Amino acid sequence: MGLTTPSASAPPAAASPGTGPGAPPTPDDPASLKVVPARHYARWVAAVAVIVLVAQFAHGLATNPVWEWGVFRDYVLSETIVHAVWVTLQLTAYATVLGFLLGTVLAFMRLSRSPVLQTVAWTYIWIFRSIPMIVQLVFWFNLSALYERLGFGIPFGPVFWSVDSNSIIGTMGAAIIGLTLHQAAYAAEIVRGGVIAVDHGQLEAAAALGIPRLRQIRRIVLPQAMRAILPTAGNEIIGLLKGTSVVYVMSIGELFYQVQVIYGRNGRVIPLLLVATAWYVVLTSLLSVAQYYVERRYARGANRTPPPTPLQRARRFVRTLRAAAAQRNQPVTPLKPLGDSR
User: Fold this and answer.
1) What secondary structure does DSSP assign to 211-224, as a single string?
2) Which residues form the ABC transmembrane type-1 domain (predicted)?
3) Distance CA 131, CA 176 (A)
């Protein structure tokens, strides 16, 4: 009687239902879950409401006769308005350059170890930031009432040379002085904040190398501080450009004053105010573009490859469109059938 030998391989176990390669996924399987994108209904409602409001405003600009676009076209490039824009640019340029020069001196006075310089700089900034600009302008405009003559001589002693204050400080000079002194107080804090942002260890390393103090400031501190100074300084210059309208109290023919004179004669208030608004928008936009490129230049030390400019992005987009159009216009070469040796 022989023994029965078991087979070498056991029969395969029965596969559980739903686990085969072709079986449908079970309800517990993540693959069976349906992915539904989030629906932002509130966002769509807000977008539609904004589009409707913008469309209503644009429709009002085009159809409301009170805007008087014909009057706007007659005055926006008139000789009087263009000359007033030039006066506005002059006031802005003088106050910016002189204000930031004086503000830089005040900033380093505050950072000095001398208590006298620190106290004088802090007092100046405190006073000129406390007094409104219009009050300062009226004060400098009436300087002759306080000092009839300005002279040069020994302090608390005899005066060797003097001149009438009205002849040396006119209306335009008083406006520039007032704007400059007001701007210097804010520029001092902007520059001081940028200098503080520079790592102090770099000054210690420069001093260890024997670099003179003035060269440390000019070649090491200020180039790095410019990255922190420029955004706030650009914003301050744009504010100064619009703030020059305050000099209308001194009867200086800048943009806002000339607009007031014109609509005071012809009664076209809305279109003349629109003329001033258009010019302020254009000038502010030009300053913003200049600020962007200056910031990009001083960012070279931090970014090896600065981001592309808007013009470079536009050129890249045009090149992409041309490449896509050229690719679509290329003739399609038919594929040879397999085995065809021709």
Assistant:
1) --HHHIIIIIIHHH
2) 85-291
3) 16
Nearest CA to 202 out of 189, 216, 212, 218 is that of 216
Mean per-residue pLDDT for 273-302?
87
Pick from 244, 247, 231: which is nearest to 280 by CA? 244
Nearest 5°: CA angle at 279, between 275 and 136? 100
C-alpha 44/C-alpha 47 separation (Å) is 5
H or E segment to which residue 80 belongs? helix 79-110
Question: Which among 250, 276, 275, 272 is positioned nearest to 263, based on CA atoms?
Answer: 272
- The closest alpha carbon to 103, from 131, 127, 89, 124, belongs to 124
Averaged over 34-43, what is the pLDDT?
A: 82
Task: Return the pLDDT at 68.
Answer: 86
User: How far is Cα 273 from Cα 296, in angstroms, rounded to an integer?
Assistant: 35
Asked if residue 220 lies in contact with residue 206, where contact means CB atoms within 8 angstroms, the answer is yes
Q: Are 252 and 171 in contact (CB under 8 A)?
A: yes
Q: Token pair 């209503």 is at which residue?
A: 56
**Which is nearest to 99 in space by CA: 189, 179, 175, 192?**
179
